[in-house]
Amino acid sequence: MRLPVTTAICCLAAVAQARPLERELPARRAVCWERVYDAAHLASHPQQKVARIRLVHLPQNWSETGQGGFYVALYVNLRQRAKVDQSFDYQLGGICKASGRGLRCVPEWEAGSWRIERGPNGALDIRNDGIIANPNPYDAEEIADGAVRIPAKPDDGLWRLSPASGPCGLE
Fold first, then answer.
1. How confident is the model at residue 14 (pLDDT cuts 50, 70, 90)?
2. Helix/strand/coil (H, E, C) string of the chain?
3. Is residue 13 within 8 Å of residue 152, measured between CB atoms?
4. Hey, how many other C-beta atoms are within 10 angstroms of the C-beta on 163?
5. Neighbour-count burial for 106-144, b at 16+ CB within 10 Å, e otherwise
6. How distant is the alpha carbon of residue 139 from its chain centre?
7. 18-34: pLDDT as tens digits
8. Of 1, 7, 66, 116, which is most buried by a Cβ count within 10 Å?
9. Alpha carbon of 139 to those of 113, 124, 127: distances in Å?
10. 64 with 27: CB under 8 angstroms?
11. pLDDT for 91 beyond 60
């Protein structure tokens, strides 16, 4: 009788310590989530800046931080494209750590933050707390010349993403 109770307690402890969104952002597998806003959506949200966004999670490239966090990158296109010859115009990466039922992500420099949460119907929600994205590519850990501010209000507070089709990698 003691063994089943001990096993149950161990299993419950493991579940309690599981990282939020483990299914959507697995610790050992690359995944990308994306949203391309169509003309109808953008017309109904005239002050939304973001027209396309991709979240990239590449655990094989970026090791865990050792403090319960891991790295993700956001790639963004605004309504007005800056560089039509490449996939994405802007990018921002950050370390994500558990926060409630989701993750809070913060860059290693002062460029805002965002939350990642489970959305409805298998979606992944990114809640923008106000970010500054650098031109893509830009490797330094600072705000670059040409960076763009993407405030949450009035229409960039929530981006609802689905699993990306096609290859998942650095842009």
1. very low
2. CHHHHHHHHHHHHHHHCCCCCCCCCCCCCCEEEEEECCHHHHHHCCCCCEEEEEEEECCCCCCCCCCCEEEEEEEEEECCCCCCCCCCCEEEEEEEEEECCEEEEECCCCCEEEEEEECHHHCEEEEEEEEEEEECCCCCCCCCCCCEEECCCCCCCEEEEEECCCCCCCC
3. no
4. 13
5. bbeeebbbbbbbebeeebbbbebeebbbbbbebeeeebe
6. 18
7. 678 988 998 888 999 99
8. 116
9. 18, 26, 24
10. yes
11. yes
Name the amino acid, one letter, at 160.
R
Structure tokens at 31: 């995944």
Q: Any idea which residue has 């229409």 for tokens? A: 155
Q: Which of 148, 137, 142 is nearest to 171 (CA)?
A: 137
**Is the pLDDT at 141 greater than 90, yes or no?**
no
